[in-house]
Amino acid sequence: MKVKGFLKDVTGASRVTNARRKLIESGSPENNYRDHIREVADELHPKATRIVVTKVEDVSPTARRFTFEATDGDKLPPFQAGQYASLDLEINGTLTTRPYSISSAPFEARTGEHPFFQLTIRNGRPETGFAANWLYANLKEGDKLTAHLPFGEFHFEPLRDSKHVVAPAGGSGITPFYAMAKEIEHGTLDMDLTILYGSVSTKDIILEQQLKAIQSDRVKFVNVISGDEEYDGEKGFLSRDLIKKYSAEDTTYFVCGPLPMYHFVKGELEALHVPARRIRMEVFGAPRDVTAAEGYPKDFEPKKFKLTVLRGIQKDVIEADSREPLTVALERAGIKNNSRCRSGACGFCRTKLVSGDVFVPAEGDGRRRADKQFGYVHACSTWPLSDCTIRIPIL
Known about the structure:
globular, Elongation Factor Tu (Ef-tu), domain 3, 18% helix
C-alpha cells in the first residue's frame, strides 16, 4: 500500500518515490541549505582525531591487531566498551570510511604514559570487504590516519541491561566483547559476561589466547566449533539449546558477527521467547547482495543510473549502480559525504532525496519517523532504482 509517498510491503522495507516531490522541493533554497539534524550530530561527537600506528601483531592466522595512539597534539576521546571507531581511508585513489569495533578497553585509552586504542581486523575472506583486506596488507607501524570516535550504542547500560550478559559472537564480532572482558577484569565494568564464540575450526580463533588469559568468575569464554574436527568442547552452531544452557533467569543478550549469524541467532532467541528489550545487536554493515533483501522489487534488473548531487549552488551528475549504496557512488566520484557506521544507523550520511525511486531495506533503516515523512535517506543504506537527485551539505 502507499503511505505518504512510500510503497510499503509487510516487511517494512520502503521505496521512496516521486510522490513526495512537491513536499521535498518546498525545503530550503539550494544556496542556503542547512541540515540542522546533522549540525546537532556534529556538536555531540568529537572532531576528527589524528592517530598513528604504534604496533601491529597477529592474533590469529587471519586476524591482525593494530594499536593506535593520538598524534600531532590530539587526545583520544573517552569511549565505552563495545563502541566503534570510523577511519578515513584513501584506497587506490578513492576516499572512503570504514567502521571497526574497538577491541581494547576504555581504561587503556586514558591511563599510562601512552594511552591507546586497538582495532582487530580480519583478512582473507570475501565478507571482510576490500577496505579490511587493504588495511590488513598495507597498514604498518608509523602510518598516520584520521579517526572518528566513539560511535555506537552497543555497550552495557546498567539502567537498561541485566547484569548477566550472554554474548553470541562470530568472526571479528568477538572484538567488542574482548573490550568488555578487559574492562571487567580492570574493575571498571560491573557485569558478568559469557561469550559464546562460534568458529568453523579451532585453528583460527581470533584473540583466543588473550581471552583465555583473562577468564574469571565474571568472564567466561566458550568456543563453539561447527567443523568436523575432533573437539571435546561445545560443537555445532549457536543454537537455542546452547544459549539456554549458559543463560541465567535474568539475562541480556549482546550479539555481534556476520549477517547470516544475526538472522540465525535472532530466530533462536525468539524461539526462547526472549523479549526485544533484552537483545542488543551491533550494526552489521550494508548487505552484500541487496537484491536478496526482503521487499526488493522482484525481477528488477541491475542498472546504472544518473545521480544528480546538489551542494549549495554546485550541481554534479555522476553514475550510480543499483547494486551499490548511494554512499559508494559519491565516494567513487570523489564527493565527500560523511559516513560513519555504513549501516544506516548513525545518520551522519543523512541525505535529502529530491527526486527518484530508491530502495531502503527495513533491516538497515535507522531513520527517524520525521526523516521518512520529509524525504530524507541515509546514503549508506539506500540503493537507487531510477535516476535520482539528492541534496547534501557542503563539507
